[in-house]
Write a structure and sequence with these properties.
The protein is of the alpha+beta class. It is built from two helices and six strands, in the order αββαββββ. α1 crosses α2.
Amino acid sequence: MLTYTHPFPIHVQLVRHWLMDQLHMDVWTRTPNDMTAILPVVKVGGSPSGWADGYTRSASIDIDLFTASQGDMDRLSQQADMAMLRLAGNGNSYGYVDDVTGGSFAAVDYGDPDLLRYVATYSLTMRPTAN
C-alpha cells in the first residue's frame, strides 16, 4: 500500500492562476453577478471525474468562457486552449502538471441572448506536491 506524504495539487487553483498569468485577466471560480460589465469572463471549476494510480492522479476541470461577440469568443477560446496545452510539463506555486488532455470548446446556451458561453473540459495528470 502506498503512503502519501505530500498532497496532490489543488487543481482548480493551479489552473485558475495559470490562466490568469497566461491570459492576463481575472479568472473566476464562481459566476459573477453582472458579467456584462466585466466581459470577457473566464470561470474554472472542478469536474466530477478522474483517477488515482500509485503516485499519479488525474483530475478534470471545466472552463467556461463568456463574451458578447463571436469574434471575442473565437479569440478567447483559442487563447484559453493554447494556455491549457502549454500547462503540460509546467506548473506554478500550486503544483506541477505532467500532461493535459481533452479540451474542445463548444457553445452552451446560457439563457441570455446578449452573452455567448463556451465550455470545455480538460484532464490534468499530476503527482503529489513537493512541499
